[in-house]
Amino acid sequence: MRSSMNYIALNQEVFHKLLCVGTGFVGDSEIGPLTDENDFHFYVNGLHANFPDIGDVDTAYTVGSVFAEEMMMGMPGESGKMSYLLLENDHYFALLIELTLGDEDEAAQGIAVIADRTQFTTEAADSISLTSLIEAMLMQHLKRMFFNDYVHEVHERLEIANDPEGMLKRVFEKC
Fold it and tell me: What are phi and psi of 110, to 5 degrees?
């Protein structure tokens, strides 16, 4: 039962999807990708209706993890940890979240943000700074999780648990 709570928390609290009887979790219906100031094109889970299937993954990188005292609201609330990984193949970069509530061993996994590699020429795709791309993907994820206007709450609700490259800290500083 507990691992299903991880799945519910991931979809409700992180991706902000509604649980609808008979259909499961339903997000918003945005069609085209979002574009940021670096001209990266993103699809955000819970926002886009046509969320791409990334297919097979060639490479995975550990980004870091955050802890929240109240990852899932309720009576009582439940603490949790979100770990981030960057997945890569020839067509996409994807930010994967593994969410674990409390002291549970089994995490729920879900792709938070996808960046379309096909928007770049081969040379440009090979020269993309993974650090800047990951930071941009994290920002898109946090904007969705905290509804844009409340992204400043990241400091109140999330605590960095593991940040080997300092990417989470840099993104949190921008919030």
Answer: -160, 145
Domain ranges in the chain are 2-174
> What does pLDDT average to in each consecutive run of 10 residues of the chain (175 residues)?
78 87 86 84 88 90 92 81 93 93 85 84 67 90 79 83 92 87
Distance CA 57, CA 55 (A): 7
CA neighbor of 97 nearest in space, from 132, 159, 145? 145
**Beta carbons within 10 angstroms of residue 163's beta carbon:** 17
pTM of the model: 0.87
Q: Residues 6 or more apart from 89 whose CB is under 8 A from it? A: 54, 55, 56, 57, 58, 59
